[in-house]
Design a protein that fits this description.
Blueprint (H helix, E strand, L loop, with lengths): L13 E12 L5 E6 L4 E12 L6 E11 L11 E6 L2 E12 L5 E8 L1
């Protein structure tokens, strides 16, 4: 049975540059890069902002979600970290989700960024 793609490629218009880190460190103490996009990957990007009151009056915290159809790193079962450059701003990945179909294939990849 073929499952429908929940993130349609025709709605993915935002170019994004992605670098993903694996588990562990290199011999020099830097993170292991498991994926780095050479060209832009087109995604559906949604961002949101919230105002947090601090001792310095207020702070605006911007977060977002990057939705990509399919599996961008099929060799790795989970995405643990990295960063994306979207709209000229570098954002850190705080959570990566591979949304799976009932048969175990990956429908889309979701990256929560801050």
């Amino acid at each position: 049975m073929k499952f429908p793609c929940l993130v349609r490629p025709r709605f993915c218009k935002t170019p994004v540059d992605i670098t993903l880190y694996g588990e562990g460190l290199t011999e020099y103490g830097s993170p292991v890069v498991i994926f780095s996009s050479d060209d832009f990957i087109y995604c559906n990007y949604q961002d949101k902002a919230k105002t947090v009151m601090t001792a310095q009056k207020k702070l605006v915290e911007v977060s977002g979600v990057v939705l990509i159809p399919g599996d961008i790193v099929p060799d790795y079962p989970a995405i643990s970290g990295g960063y994306v450059v979207v709209n000229g701003v570098k954002r850190d990945i705080v959570r990566g989700v591979k949304a799976r179909n009932p048969d175990g294939t990956v429908n889309f990849t979701e990256l929560d960024v801050i």
